[in-house]
Design brief:
The protein is mostly loops. The chain contains no helices and three strands. It has strands spanning 26-27, 31-33, 40-42. Strands 1-2-3 form a three-stranded antiparallel beta sheet, with no helix packed on it. It starts with 25 loop residues before the first strand and ends in a 29-residue tail after the last strand.
């Protein structure tokens, strides 16, 4: 399958639908799924599929990531 590369991304930890912790959902390496209502989020962008648009701007908020390398 497609590999997204070595980029590190972080998003908010709860589903914007009902504040369900996303760590309780499923992640296949590309798509994160909320356990409550199976809303899905793209791991590269935090965006949801178009059909959620009736709920407004449904997207996971980006968080800052710092990678520290010890050599």
């Amino acid at each position: 399958g497609e590999k997204y590369g070595d980029e590190v991304r972080a998003f908010q930890g709860v589903c914007p639908h009902q504040d369900i912790p996303l760590c309780e959902g499923k992640f296949d390496g590309k798509v994160l799924m909320c356990r409550a209502h199976q809303w899905t989020f793209d791991a590269r962008s935090g965006n949801t599929p178009f059909y959620y648009s009736r709920f407004g701007n449904v997207r996971l908020r980006d968080l800052v990531v710092r990678v520290k390398r010890d050599f």
